[in-house]
């Protein structure tokens, strides 16, 4: 249920980031916002639609989980999905000073997917125990009316629960549940050059993505005091070979550790396209490959799927860590310069190192080499995934 909405939102986000934002990668090259009619309006439109699809991922998840879970209990799914969605919106509602209806946007999007799933599960339990099992025909008008009159208690209890949860959350903090933690992670990445600290942050961010809480690290936007020191040094010396902080979040994590998105999933897509024999996997890889080139991998995470999928946990974590170690060695041995220069939003992932080093072909070669290494890491797990998919397909056919 999530996949088509997320894919559509990500494609719009990709087009907006790469072409329509002033100063974005292709805008710098071709001055698109200068000559394209209504570029600003298109930017606003694409951004709005993306926020209402990709930005509502958790609301859609709450709807789907509640609907299909309560149906598996033998109860009517007529109103449970809608109740779960409204309840999750109540949970993320806050009182706007100007009187407008306002929601915590961070709590509605992909970075709060786990919370949406939990909301759907809780709502399904209320309907499971507070409504009667349904075995009547969905097309019968009287049965639909009967089910509507059977649900008020479950709806009231569900919405009251999320309303109380909302108040408890804001007694603790006035921010999004994960916003403070995410800010701490970003500040740590931007203002440290400790390899051990950065390694720990990589692990935390990947695991957060894996369980549906979203990685707090945003590629190419890691800016702190050390980034500014490196940039000033490179501008003064006309090169980045001897910057004060060669191991930095901007120079490595924002460029090399997550090629194609958190977990370095561009390599996964290439492996699927090359060897997978499962049609649904091939279809997902084809549809998500272009967004993956721009570091947008949310459709991959739900389409393969990778979230909560233990088969992919090890490569999902291992690929960024291996990339991190190899880049540390390459920079330490002066095989590649440190990336210190600003990287425009929407830069293709393969070119981020090239742009960040002001045109170093060593950085471009390193990026390609890392993709090959990541492909080797993902290869056996894609093969296992294919075998599991084949067994599930055989079981499904046998059950018919």
Throw out a few tags for this protein:
mainly alpha, two-stranded antiparallel ribbon, globular, single chain, 400 residues
How much is the radius of gyration in Å? 23 Å
The overall strand count is: 2
Element order, helices and strands?
A: HHHHHHEEHHHHHHHHHHHHH
Mean pLDDT: 84
Biggest sheet descriptor? 2 strands, antiparallel
- In helices, the fraction of residues equals 55-70%
Q: What percentage of the residues does DSSP assign to strands (E)?
A: under 5%
What is the CA-CA span between the terminal residues?
Answer: 23 Å
Description:
By secondary structure, this protein is mainly alpha-helical. The chain is 66% helix and 2% strand. It has 19 helices and two strands. The protein has helices at residues 2-20, 25-30, 32-35, 39-53, 57-72, 80-91, 113-130, 141-150, 152-172, 179-190, 195-210, 225-237, 249-257, 265-275, 279-292, 298-303, 313-332, 352-356, 361-399; strands at 93-95, 101-103. Strands 1-2 form a two-stranded antiparallel ribbon. A hairpin with a 5-residue loop joins strand 1 (93-95) and strand 2. The protein is globular, with a radius of gyration of 23 Å. The mean pLDDT is 84.
